[in-house]
Amino acid sequence: MAVSLPLVFDAPKRGLPPRHLADLDAAGRRAAVAALGLPAFRADQLARQYYGRLTADPAQMTDLPAAVRDTVASELFPTLFTTVRHLSCDEGTTRKTLWRAHDGTLVESVLMRYPDRATLCISSQAGCGMACPFCATGQGGLDRNLSTAEIVDQVRAAAAAMRDGEVGGSPGRLSNVVFMGMGEPLANYNRVVAAVRRIIEPNPDGLGISARSVTVSTVGLAPAIRKLADEGLQVTLAVSLHTPDDELRDTLVPVNNRWSVREVLDAARYYADSTGRRVSIEYALIRDVNDQPWRADLLAKKLRGALGARVHVNLIPLNPTPGSEWDASPKPVEQEFVRRVLAGGVSCTVRDTRGQEIAAACGQLAAEEPGRS
């Protein structure tokens, strides 16, 4: 049975925090500084503190006159998040953080350090409205969109943690950002695109992370994929497909009732054609649900037909949530699935799984927190 799903690219501002410096582009910063009666050069000065020195507290901005720090703090640096808790594993190289926003909503991010890179998985919404039944976040529903600054500040905080050696035991650099945390990024389209620009623009306008090191994930909001393609950004698009057939995908990813597998792959092809970037296909392998050999064959056939060589399948062993009926596929089944996709002419690898002992699936920490908003 088809499910009617309302889609809002830019939801009403319910519960959003007060305006923050990271919400503003260069022109907006200059206007905000002028409104405070400060000289124009303070706009770049504040941006260099936030994006360059990774400082979010004006009290620590020693090049700012002490007399204006309180005003700047209240008008441009409201507190976005407080840390509820950090959980670490993998010998200290993986850290999951549960944040509490100003209105009590809970948000998660995960910082993973590898020998050659450090990747941050961030949230774009508090909760998620896509209702995928195997996802902990989807089970909890949508609380609200995050502001641009709330998205960006997750990245700033992780960059500071890497600089200070808090993850992995020695100073390092945040190199990659993936929008694969809580929420559907393209359902919060305007703020996510603004956040991406802040993440990739060089100082003093942003954090200076390479666009090719930023991945935006979606369950398949086809019109928004096409819109993103026209933004001129060189970020990687990741499509959470999870099965190649509409019959099962209608259940696993309910938004498929609105945009079919074919429509999603057509939009992905438009993205690849427009940007020249290879598209990543995310596929959570679920025991006895979507792991059959014929589905691997069909997946390869459809992807090869739609995207040619400009596609890579990222196979994800399911990270089951407590009490869930869903479980990861056995290793032999996983290996056969990979073999068949490769035999079908499509690149395929299995994602390195981390953090299972710290409730790594998105939404688990928030769901377990007492008094969850």
From TrEMBL:
Its EC number is 2.1.1.192. Gene3D superfamilies: 1.10.150.530, Aldolase class I. Coiled coil: none annotated. Residues 114-357 form the Radical SAM core domain. Binds 1 [4Fe-4S] cluster. The cluster is coordinated with 3 cysteines and an exchangeable S-adenosyl-L-methionine. Reaction proceeds by a ping-pong mechanism involving intermediate methylation of a conserved cysteine residue. This is Probable dual-specificity RNA methyltransferase RlmN. The gene is rlmN.
